[in-house]
Design a protein that fits this description.
about 120 residues
Length: about 120
Amino acid sequence: MTPGRQLGFLWGGAALASAAAAPFARALAAEAPACAFRSLTGVPCATCGGTRALLALARFDVPASLAWNPLVALAAALFLVGGLVALARAFRGQGVPDGAPPRWAGLAAAAVLAANWAFVVAAGR
């Protein structure tokens, strides 16, 4: 089995397991620790509100999820959809395509993270 196909099965399995855990999200979130960055600095981190965003997604409340933390909400949705696509490809004998991301991807990711952090700070999450 190719590494890309193995990755497809792993990613798809993790996405399915995450979706299966959605009914237990509230109980799991109750055990999550407080944000260490915010506790130390008083400033919300880039993922503050992420737990509430995931809880809203578990209830299929997409607008509330995006309001809590858009980056976490979109990343979770992409993880789930990408995992299902990767699993389907793995079952077809294909795999997750490999290759290096384009050079601009790192800068774009940093810009998106900075924009999300600015949103979280402005919203007072």
